[in-house]
C-alpha cells in the first residue's frame, strides 16, 4: 500500500505539471508522442545514466576525500547537478533534430517534460525510502512536489530554451548557447541542492526556487507573445494577397481565435491549425537551407492550398 501511495504521489503531480505546460503552448502545440518520449526519457533513461555516472564520479572522488559529510555535500552540489543535467539534456539533442522543435517555447516544453519525468522517478525513490512516520512522509511529498521536482523542470527547461533559441543559428553560436544553457541548468540545480543541504539556508532555498519559477513562467509567457507576433507577421503577406481575409489576421494571432462566431465552426479548428502551421513553416523556410528549405517550401505550399480549400467551402474567397 505504501509503495502504491508513493507511486501516486510521484506520478500525479508531475504529470499534471506536464499537462499544464503542454496546454500553455497554445499557438503551435507540440506532438503528444514526442512530449511523452521526452518525459519517459527523464523518468527512465536519464535516471539510469545519472545513477551510473554518479557512482563512477563518487568512487573516483573517494580516492582523494575521506570525509563522509564532505563527500555528501560535494555529491549534492557538484556531482548531481553535473551528471543529471547532462543525462537529462542528452535526449534534447535528439529531439532538436525534429522539424517540430524550432523555437524557445518548444525547448521549454521538451526540456520541461524531461525534467518532470526525472523529478517523478526521483521523488518516487525518495518517497519509498522514507523511514520516518506518516507525517514525515507527507512533509517530504509536499516539499519534493512543490520544490525539488519543479527544480528539475526549471533547470532542464532552461537548457531546452537555449537550444530552441539557437536552432537556426550557425554552429559556433549553437554550441556556445548550448553550453551556456547547460551551465545555467547546472547552476540552478547546484544552488537548490546547496541551500537545502543546511537548515540555516533552507528558507533561502525555497525563496530561490519560487523566484526561479516566476522567472520561468515570465519567460514562457514572453515567448508565447513572440509567437503571436510571428503568426501575425508571417501571415501578413497572405492577407495582402487575399489568401487569408484581412480581418482574420488579428484573430489568428490572438487567444480570440479559440472563441466561436468569427468563422464557420465546421472549419475553425482546421483553419487555425493550417494557418498557424503556415506561419511557422514560412519562418523555418526562410531560416533554412538545402533539403530542409525544400521540405519547408513544400509544406508552405501545402498549407496555402489547404487554407484556400477550407475557405472556399464557406465562400470566404
Structure in words:
The longest helix has 40 residues, at 202-241. The chain is built from 10 helices and no strands. 79% of the residues lie in helices and 0% in strands. It folds into 2 domains: 2-197, no CATH class; 227-313, no CATH class. By secondary structure, it is an all-alpha fold. Helix 3 (68-95) packs across helix 5. The protein has helices at residues 2-24, 32-61, 68-95, 104-128, 134-165, 171-195, 202-241, 248-252, 268-287, 290-313. The model has no long low-confidence stretch (mean pLDDT 94).
Secondary structure layout:
Layout: H1 2-24, H2 32-61, H3 68-95, H4 104-128, H5 134-165, H6 171-195, H7 202-241, H8 248-252, H9 268-287, H10 290-313
Helix pairs in contact: 1-4, 1-5, 2-3, 2-4, 3-4, 3-5, 3-6, 4-5, 5-6, 5-7, 6-7, 7-9, 9-10
- What string, H for helix and E for strand, traces the elements in order? HHHHHHHHHH
> Which geometry do the CA atoms define?
elongated
Strand content: under 5%
Helix amount, in percent? over 70%
Main beta-sheet strand count, sense and barrel state? none
The assigned structural class equals mainly alpha
Mean of all residue-level pLDDT scores: 94
Distance between the termini: 62 Å
pLDDT under 50 segments (min length 5)? none
Quantity of strands, as a count: 0
Radius of gyration: 23 Å
Number of domains: 2
DSSP helical segment count: 10
Amino acid at each position: 500500500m505504501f509503495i502504491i501511495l508513493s507511486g501516486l504521489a510521484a506520478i500525479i503531480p508531475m504529470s499534471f505539471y506536464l499537462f499544464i505546460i503542454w496546454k500553455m503552448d497554445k499557438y503551435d502545440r507540440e506532438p503528444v508522442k514526442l512530449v511523452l518520449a521526452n518525459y519517459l526519457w527523464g523518468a527512465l533513461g536519464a535516471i539510469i545514466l545519472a545513477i551510473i555516472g554518479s557512482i563512477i564520479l563518487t568512487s573516483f572522488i573517494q580516492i582523494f576525500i575521506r570525509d563522509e559529510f564532505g563527500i555528501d555535500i560535494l555529491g549534492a552540489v557538484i556531482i548531481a547537478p553535473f551528471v543529471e543535467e547532462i543525462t537529462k539534456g542528452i535526449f534534447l539533442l535528439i529531439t532538436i533534430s525534429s522539424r517540430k522543435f524550432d523555437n524557445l517555447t518548444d525547448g521549454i516544453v521538451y526540456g520541461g517534460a524531461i525534467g518532470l519525468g526525472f523529478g517523478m522517478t526521483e521523488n518516487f525513490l525518495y518517497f519509498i525510502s522514507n523511514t520516518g512516520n506518516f507525517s514525515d512522509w507527507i512533509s517530504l511529498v509536499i516539499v519534493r512536489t512543490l520544490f525539488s521536482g519543479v527544480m528539475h523542470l526549471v533547470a532542464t527547461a532552461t537548457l531546452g530554451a537555449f537550444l530552441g533559441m539557437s536552432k537556426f543559428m550557425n554552429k559556433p553560436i549553437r554550441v556556445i548557447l548550448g553550453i551556456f544553457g547547460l551551465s545555467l541548468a547546472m547552476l540552478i540545480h547546484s544552488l537548490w541542492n546547496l541551500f537545502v543541504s543546511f537548515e540555516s539556508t533552507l528558507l533561502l532555498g525555497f525563496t530561490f526556487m519560487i523566484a526561479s519559477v516566476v522567472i520561468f513562467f515570465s519567460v514562457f509567457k514572453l515567448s508565447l507573445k513572440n509567437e503571436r507576433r510571428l503568426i501575425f507577421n508571417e501571415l501578413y503577406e497572405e492577407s495582402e494577397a487575399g489568401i487569408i481575409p484581412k480581418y482574420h489576421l488579428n484573430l489568428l494571432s490572438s487567444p480570440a481565435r479559440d472563441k466561436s462566431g468569427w468563422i464557420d465552426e465546421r472549419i475553425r479548428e482546421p483553419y487555425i491549425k493550417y494557418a498557424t502551421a503556415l506561419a511557422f513553416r514560412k519562418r523555418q523556410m526562410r531560416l533554412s537551407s538545402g533539403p530542409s528549405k525544400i521540405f519547408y517550401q513544400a509544406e508552405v505550399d501545402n498549407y496555402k492550398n489547404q487554407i484556400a480549400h477550407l475557405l472556399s467551402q464557406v465562400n470566404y474567397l
